[in-house]
Amino acid sequence: MLGQQDVGHRVVVRRIVGIREGRPLFSDALGELVELSETHLTLTTDHGRLQVPRSEVHRAKRVPPSRRPTAAAVTALELAADEAWPAPTRERLGGWLLRSADGWTGRANSALPVGDPDRPLPAAVDAVVRWYAERGQPALVNTPLPLAAPVGAELDARGWQSRPPVLVQTMPLAGMPPGPPERPGAPPVELVGTPSDDWLAIAAGRKGGLPDAARHVLTAVDQVRFAQVYAAGTLVAIGRGTVTGGGRWLGLSLIEVLPEARRQGLAGRVIRALADWGAATGASHAFLQVEQRNTGAVALYRGLGFTTHHTYLTRVAPH
């Protein structure tokens, strides 16, 4: 039987769904175990959230990690994420993307090595270094793993450093669990098409300023919504949602709650509001990016059903 150590892992559950001619009928469910209590266990499956009473569980076990996503799946998601966070200055190096946004965030100021750079790998890295040097910026490369492992090996040989690992997490929108009942008088989550000055101020505080290029990154997406929660006239929670990747992917970013308003479920409410909007536009899955060391956020997203699709490292050229 499963234990608390299995929460957050993929499991298979054989459950009793009926009796026929005196014999039990079984059905198997596969998904991520997101809750385990004395009375039931809860899975997030590809078809939605499933709660199984313990009395119906015939057998349950953790399954080995599923196969790594294909190179095509990683590439498609990385390109959808690039659409959702568009740098104003962009060039192509074969299939690679070179991006610059006045130094605002690593994602918008790094090369994305997906595809063929149309030249030998050492020459491609040299071209990346020159491109950023021409703009007075340090050279950064985002290396999705394991897709960009050869690029990572080349950067290792050159002495490039690594920033903390980032988890690219995904979930089917149909698996988003319902939130707790709204408290009477709880402030609503509003979704708007243009960020307010208050919204931008919170984003600037989190990201260390807000140059003009940042406004492009935040707003230059065809389908984008900015979530905001006001309490007593003060903006206390924000979030941003985009729909990209041919309409499949809802991208979640800048989920932020002011310290004095935390532990009230506001982050979950913001995410659910954006998820409802994304599903209404036709998106089927959500993704987000979170540093592995941000354990509080990782736990929040796990509780909502997110699992890690792949990881990436931001590599930094030596001075």
TrEMBL record:
InterPro entries: Acyl_CoA_acyltransferase, GNAT_dom, Rv0428c-like_C. This is Acetyltransferase (GNAT) family protein. SUPFAM superfamilies: Acyl-CoA N-acyltransferases (Nat). PANTHER family: L-2,4-DIAMINOBUTYRIC ACID ACETYLTRANSFERASE, N-ACETYLTRANSFERASE. It holds the Pfam family Rv0428c_C. One of its GO terms (molecular function) is acyltransferase activity, transferring groups other than amino-acyl groups. Keywords: Transferase. Residues 189-319 form the N-acetyltransferase domain. It comes from the Bacteria.
